[in-house]
Amino acid sequence: MRSFEFVLNPCVVIPCFNHSAAVATEALAYCPVLIVDDGSTPPLPEISGCTILRHARNQGKGAALRSGFHRASQLGFSHIITMDADGQHFADDLPKFLALAQAQPAALIVGVRDFFASRCPAARRHSNSVSSFCFRLATGIRLRDSQCGFRCYPLALTSQLKTHSGRYAFELEFLVRAAWLGAPIVPVPVKCIYDPQHLSHSHFRPVRDVAHITIMNLGLALCRPVAKMTDKARRRGQFAGCTMRILALDHGTKRVGVAISDETATIAQPLEFLAAEPEPALLARIAEMVAARNVQEVLVGLPRNMNGTYGPAAEKARQFVAALEKVVSVPVKTWDERLTSVQANRFLIESGVRRDKRKQKVDQTAAAILLQSYLDRAVG
To answer: How far apart (Å, rounded) are the C-alpha atoms in residues 186 and 101?
Structure first.
């Protein structure tokens, strides 16, 4: 049976433009620090112990965060915690993020500020209220603070989401799209400071940035219901008069979890688990299921490391796919299965399933999570 223990490998990413990024030194006490110098003039000096990635010119906070995500992934980190460089965030809040990321590695963890205790200016509070209302409109999720830059991102999630906004709107668009994807949004209280010195150093433009953020949020709120209805209508029209199912396989060394979609390829449900050995018997059983259930596509989870690279497990999965393609007459595809087993085990624990029963259910639950991820992002 596979181990479900997750090993957290985080770093702090600080986008910086004409700030001292003094919080970086304090953050080093908790984990490695990557600073993205977004075209500061003069350039940010080297900071002992920190890695600095430099932009030749200022590109905005969204571009700085994207660069930080990419470099952190190259360096093999599993999560990044973003902090602002203007000194408004406190490094001693980092343990909260680290503990939550260890417990819920697939979650997007969002800092929630106490606006009144921090003496946040009224204009900032109003901006956040409008943004949080639009976020709720787009996602149905209540979140008291949708603009805090103190967050923890799973890099597996950042590699899957495509965003288009720049500057400060990037963080809000990412939050909405993560919610649409089904990623858990976990709030955590954080301290924050607003005083004349910090406010004078902020690059947030109250009128222009709030207008940009509001238009972006309203656009997302309006387009999402239409997109969902369009996808469903397209699926129903494409498969009208027939049944179409997708079979998903979470391939392990001892067991293979099986899940299947409904007839419209919209909802995934766990089915059963099969013994991984002997492989000829496994392949024969899968071929029977494909024929009996009118399956038109098979999806196999492809293991990847948290930094996006492939290891020995991925090669075994590819070999299994090659063998499977010889015994079924439908397309066989692979799909990123990072964290599906962790999510499945966490789901079963939170659902109150006893430990002895979890072993019997976790593989097909992981397969269902894998398949639902594929249905939400790839089908239609």
So the answer is: 10
